[in-house]
Design a protein that fits this description.
It is built from 5 helices and 5 strands. It is α/β, with parallel strands linked by helices and 99 residues long. It is globular, with a radius of gyration of 12 Å.
Length: 99
């Protein structure tokens, strides 16, 4: 499985490059903030909603710390979708220590 650091993700966002980023956190978590341009699909809804994604382009997955996004990547890969996990998730994006 491919992965990307939050620094690399930040460079993608700042470059204006078009890419798919799915935030798989819960509603109360995303209410605290999201990466600009991210699409919110909670992990539990992914099996019913993954078809909302462009399946011919890589899908970057992010969560709070990296565990749920790994599960999301595993699921999407089982559907034949190229995925990239964001290491450290929003904790790393926000500069918090990831345990």
């Amino acid at each position: 499985m491919k992965s990307i650091t939050t620094d690399e993700l930040r460079n993608l966002v700042e470059s204006g490059q078009n890419f798919q980023l799915v935030d798989v956190r819960e509603d109360d978590e995303v209410a605290l903030g999201m990466v600009p341009g991210a699409k919110h699909i909670p992990l539990g809804q992914l099996p019913e909603r993954f078809e909302e994604l462009e399946i011919n382009e890589p899908v970057y997955c992010i969560c709070k710390g990296g565990v749920r996004s790994l599960k999301a990547c595993d699921f999407l890969e089982s559907k034949g979708i190229d995925t990239v996990n964001v290491e450290g998730g929003m904790m790393s994006w926000n500069g918090e220590a990831v345990s």
